[in-house]
Amino acid sequence: MSERENGAWSAGRPLSKAWAAARAMNRFRLAPDSQDDSASQDGTAVVDCGVYLNGERMPGAYTPDQALAEAGRRDGAFVWLGLHEPSEKEMAAIAHTYGLHELAVEDAVKAEQRPKLEQFGAVHFLVLRTARYVPHQELTESSQVVETGQMMIFIGERFVITVRHGDASEMTPVRADLESGRANLLEQGSWAVAYAVTDRVVDNYLEVAEQVEADLDIIEEGVFSRDRTAPIQQVYQLKRELVEFRRAVVPLQRPLSAIIASQGVVPKEIRRYFRDVQDHLTRTVEQVSSYDDLLNSILQARLAQVTVDQNNDMRKIAAWAGIATVWTAAAGVYGMNFEYMPETHWQYGYPGLIAILSIITVVLYRAFRRNGWL
User: From the CB of residue 163, how many other CB atoms can be counted at a distance below 10 Å?
Assistant: First the structure.
């Protein structure tokens, strides 16, 4: 548990191979979001800024300072400010307006944090790691399978600020979903937005896990096929990508547990929603752990296959060397310069020796074949 000012919280087996090919096709069809929220307004990091009252978005366009002032004049209103990869200068201006702590602002700009939950006075700072699956024609030793980013959420009584780094887990669909049909959830305030964002991130984890499972099925089938189409480099690359995915998923368990266990900070109704997110996260963690174990087994099996193949090659070389030794021995004996050698003056001595050596060669060849050496 990490601590800063005022105390803090820190944060079945794959389907049958019959489905592998069909599911692998899904890798080329990522569900596009309705709008790319990485496009900021007026060239700034601000993607959207809205004021919400009684579960509804108030009409009009607001700058961040105008939105906070408007929310302060109305009971129960709050601001949802969405930022995408803000600069240090832009984040400093937002921090001055909303009273954000400098340590949290530094984390939000650098975006190199583990999932965690911290408290700075009345403001909570939640860090998530986002993930998305990267479609690829085939898995190679350099294919990128999982792309990760970061999502930072500042949660105050009158505002919630989402700061996104990377292209995974865009927030435009989350905002549209809340505004279109979940007014009862928005009425719960800024923590409702924090739940919706977290739910979106964890749902993306499930999608990534499903797509990685399809890759895993293909790798497994390639390793154990007759032609062994999956080289060891592909297995190792998928394992590296799975490690990257695991770093995003596993550490999030602690901050979610802290949110669920909190009393008087997060509304009781919202804590119920976070429990559902925790269930989905637990499922993903179990999947990732099982995939890692399976990849370890596949890697060990592939290494064992390499060893067996090398042993087979050595046996073949030894068998042919044994056959060649017969001819080498005969040539060595008759190559010596002795005057009295057996059959040296016999008319059929040479053909006879060739015949004997050929018979011995055939006998040895059949013996090696029978024992599986050739």
Answer: 25
pLDDT at res. 1: 41
Residue 34 structure tokens? 């309705």
pLDDT in tens, 260-285: 988 778 888 899 999 999 999 999 99
What tokens does 105 get?
A: 């602002």
pTM for this entry:
0.73
pLDDT per residue as tens digits for the range 278-313:
999 999 999 999 988 888 888 877 777 777 777 777
Write b or e for each residue in 313-339: b if 16 or more Cβ atoms lie within 10 A of its Cβ, otherwise e: eeeeeebeeebeebeeeeeeeeeeeee
| 3 state SS of 60 | coil
Q: What is the mean pLDDT of residues 235-252?
A: 89
Q: Using alpha carbons only, give the angle 89, 166, 143 rounded to the nearest 5 degrees.
A: 145
CA-CA distance, 191 to 85, in Å (whole number)? 22
Q: Strand 78-84 to strand 123-133: parallel, antiparallel, or no bridges (unpaired)?
A: unpaired
Q: Looking up tokens 């964890």, which residue turns up?
A: 202
The answer on pLDDT for 174 being more than 70 is yes
The span from the CA of 24 to the CA of 218, in Å, is 8
Tell me how far apart the alpha carbons of residues 21 and 13 are, in angstroms, rounded to a whole number.
17
pLDDT beyond 60 at 41:
no
Contact status, residue 108 vs residue 88, Cβ threshold 8 Å: no
